[in-house]
Sequence to fold (349 residues):
Amino acid sequence: MKKLLVTGSSGLVGSEVCVYFAQKGYEIHGVDNNQRAVFFGPQGDTRWNQKRLSETIENFTHHEIDIRDRDGVLNMLKTVKPDVIVHTAAQPSHDRAAAIPFDDFDTNAVGTLNMLEATRQFAPEASFIHMSTNKVYGDAPNKIKLKELETRWDYDDDFYANGIAETFTIDQSKHSLFGASKVASDVMVQEYGRYFNMATCCLRGGCLTGPNHTGVELHGFLSYLVKCNLEGKKYSVFGYKGKQVRDNIHSYDIARFMEEFINAPRIGEVYNLGGGKNNTCSIFEAFAITEKFSGKKQVYEYVDKNREGDHICYYSDLRKMKAHYPGWDITISLEETIRQIVEAWKKRI
Fold:
């Protein structure tokens, strides 16, 4: 039986990956110390998800390890010797990073280095899949010519008709401290691949979402928006007239792409992982879709100041992913994703 080790296993993507590959016959090792609750308070607690995995996956082992604990990580990899590592553990908030810069960098950059070096020493043949972020591009996408439509911004340059490709610059822009720490980890994952000939890839995620997301205001756009809608809580829209655009990908389709990579691994690759142009929405468009499924009017306030380094419009060009792995495509639409999130929150609040 092949072994899969997942860091951040109680989070959205980590838990989806655990369930998906358990169904494929893998022995699952989950690594999570509920650091999300430390970063975001009780509303970020993911113990419920850890409990769900332990109760529903037969071959599941939980490891209560902080990825900043270098000796702990080395000993775990030495013991487990996994066939695949999916590294999703991170400090994930653009905004929170500025208040906790050491925790942010030590988790995102140093924690990733700990995982890479432990993998090189004890599982060098394993596929290493790293959840990076589109924030590695900083605010450079805001320099693309835009057009303002009734409910959203969009690119007004035919070169970007399909979105942002992996060749887009990551240099000379404002990233946020979170974006900078993720650049460090992203480049290190590529370097371990190329320098040590390891099968590594960086998945530069846009808005990763799904029904098992513990969304909070500082991270988890769609999940938190839906939660606010159902609770009648005021949602804050930060700048850009509420027309800022993101592409959204269901965590199930993320796991499906990982399977494609594992079956045909490459060295030091980078992919922009998102829902693509067809799965985009602005905040106001997300309100409308959510209201359709919840039957409740969204309560919100507009704050006439955007988040530092935030994207006005961003969606992923999926052509490289599809060219390398033609068996993969998006299977869950934006509307179906939001419907699932609505139904999941109804059961949890």
